[in-house]
Amino acid sequence: MNPFTFQVPSNILFETGASRKVAGLAAEFGAKRVLLVTDKGVRNAGLTQGAEEALQAAGCNLVIFDDVVADPPWNVVEQAVSLCREERIDLVLSIGGGSALDTAKLVAYLARSGDRLDDVYGVGLAKGQRLPLLLVPTTAGTGSEVTPIAIVTTPTSEKKGVVSPRLLPDWAILDPELTLGLPPHVTAATGIDAMVHAIEAYTSRHKKNPMSDQLARQALALLSQNIREVCTNGQNLEARSQMLLGSMLAGMAFANAPVAAVHALAYPIGALFHVPHGLSNALVLMGVLRFNLPAAEKLYAELAPIVDPDAGNLSVQEAGRHFVDSLGAICRDCKVPESLAEVGVREADLSRLSEDAMKQTRLLVNNPREVAYADAYAIYSEALDGKSRSVAA
Ligand SMILES: NC(=O)c1ccc[n+]([C@@H]2O[C@H](COP(=O)([O-])OP(=O)(O)OC[C@H]3O[C@@H](n4cnc5c(N)ncnc54)[C@H](O)[C@@H]3O)[C@@H](O)[C@H]2O)c1
Ligand SMILES: [Fe+2]
To answer: What are the Fe-containing alcohol dehydrogenase-like C-terminal domain coordinates in residue numbering (predicted)?
Structure first.
């Protein structure tokens, strides 16, 4: 067995209604001045109300930063850091999707450590102290509440990651009630993102290990068994709970066995065309999985019966292909858009996308098969009119 290290947050609370318990958790840190990092969509949907009321009732001074936007740009992070310093904040709480949670992780780190954002992009460069940090996800999801990662859009429209154990929160607080109102298209895209985390962790080239494998398998089971239900019946609390648990387990898996080419090719689509992260993943998913098949067939065959129990009797070759097709069927059933053209990408954009994807070396090294510029171009090209989803393997 390969030696491995494994890092997760030290505390997790998973409970319906848990977001109303943040005041008690903030009190553990003696916090008096709390910064809530969120976005307007989440706040206007009333998802922060329970936590806000609980903190105010406990006598906390609450400062609100609700200017987070999807794929948070560097300047939004810097604005929130300034506010955090001006207000002499002593604890950062975030309620929201991956965009809010990632922003909050950096705010808690940069405000306390004094480091500059530009100096900490990459792996292990954030070594200072951070403010106490509580994270409450409202999507299922990025798993950001349990990962040491924050993704920022830079001034040159690249998506760059800060990766450091310092970004793991003091508490990950999971409240499935907060995900009940997630609209079907966001439910589908964020659910696919979580499935991709599990799949890419399971096939991750260097850091795949027995713990990430178990978590990835369990995550994929929970996510694939519940994603169709939550897309059609969003009020099903039990199915929403399974999705939130699945996305957290997938987060733990890929935090320790990093994601690869699906994410590397998805990031430029998000950065240049402002396509939601999960949808960007879904649009290149089939092309990347098919490209990976020659190298990852055995691993995909191992995952196939988790997604479809009928795949148990197939040969390795058949099961590998069946796995890819099963994911195509999930995307179709959940009405995820099929083509890059539908989100505004044109043929003339494919070379810029491919160039930017090749810059995601942090992720590409984890892919089971080496990806060259021409491979990236071919995958984007196939996805342009949605051919990659319909073409049989
Ligand atoms: N840190 C990590 O480990 C990690 C992993 C994967 C992705 N990411 C990053 O996370 C970001 C994507 O996060 P996301 O997919 O969670 O989406 P998001 O945070 O960008 O939110 C998408 C939209 O959904 C809305 N929303 C969120 N929760 C809602 C709810 N419960 N009800 C109604 N509306 C709701 C938001 O207001 C927003 O408009 C990207 O920047 C991506 O790069 C980070
Ligand atoms: Fe992701």
So the answer is: 187-383
Distance of CA 216 to the CA centre of its chain: 14
pLDDT at position 393: 40
Residue for token pair 């290990």: 209
The pLDDT tens digits of the residues spanning 42-69 come to 999 999 999 999 999 999 999 999 999 9
Query: Residue 236: pLDDT band by 50, 70, 90 thresholds?
Result: very high
Residues 6+ apart with CB under 8 A from 336: 185, 188, 189, 192, 279, 282
Atom of ligand 1 at shortest range from CA of 70:
20
In short, whether 190's Cβ falls inside 6 Å of ligand 1 is: yes
Half-sphere exposure of 266 (CA within 13 A, CB side): 27
Which of 186, 196, 199, 265, when mutated, tests ligand 1's pocket best, judged by the most ligand atoms within 8 Å of its CB?
186
d(CA 20, CA 49): 9
Pick the CATH number of 12-179 from 3.30.460.10, 3.60.150.10, 3.40.50.1970, 1.10.1040.10: 3.40.50.1970
Euclidean distance between CA atoms 26 and 390, whole angstroms: 50
Q: Is the CB of 383 under 6 A from ligand 1?
A: no
Q: Whole-angstrom Cα distance, residue 207 to residue 372? A: 22
What count of Cα atoms within 13 Å lies in the side-chain half-sphere of residue 230? 34
Which ligand gives the minimal distance to the CA of 277? 1
